[in-house]
Design a protein that fits this description.
about 210 residues, mainly alpha, 9 helices
Amino acid sequence: MGPSLERQSQVERKSRSEDALLDAAAELIAERGVQGASLASIGTRAGVSRGLPNHHFGSKDALVARLAQRAQNGIGQRMQEAQREQADRIGDLSALDRVLLAVDGYLEMFEDPTPDQHALLVMWGSTFPARASVDGMADAERRAYEGLSGLIASGQTDGSVRSGVDPIATAVLLHGLMRGLVALRLSDGTLADMSGVRHACGEWISAALAPS
């Protein structure tokens, strides 16, 4: 094996090892919360040495930040795929259509969340009031706000969103609505039929953002 292939193999092994540790961290955080998931327990759950998480990530905060980034990236990719599928089915989408799809897709994902998605919500909750691992979560939240605010601003350009809307403030409001509904869903799935909630969200958002 040549030096380049050996280096590639080492990189692949490291990536697989880190993915396994992040998978274990997501499961434990979803089950026990951030404080209850130690680096040693993450290593044990992943089936590796208890010291390997520290070797790969350097600290628990760094591991949690990486997990938050991975979870948020996964959600973003799922939303983009849903928008592409919808565009292929019905043609061009307005920016408001993409906002509606983003919100509905987010709520739909959390009807049966992956460990990463469940852990992201737990990590978000863990930042209050102790601000634990806030750096990683703040970055994930910021990218979510920017994505929504960018869509709203695009809607003002294409005419699907009324001009008087503040894109950033509205993005924060929508993100808070999404997170709150998901938290309620995960804490008590019997509160309401989520299909009805998703439909109501779409109607409210359209009424608030669409031009008169």
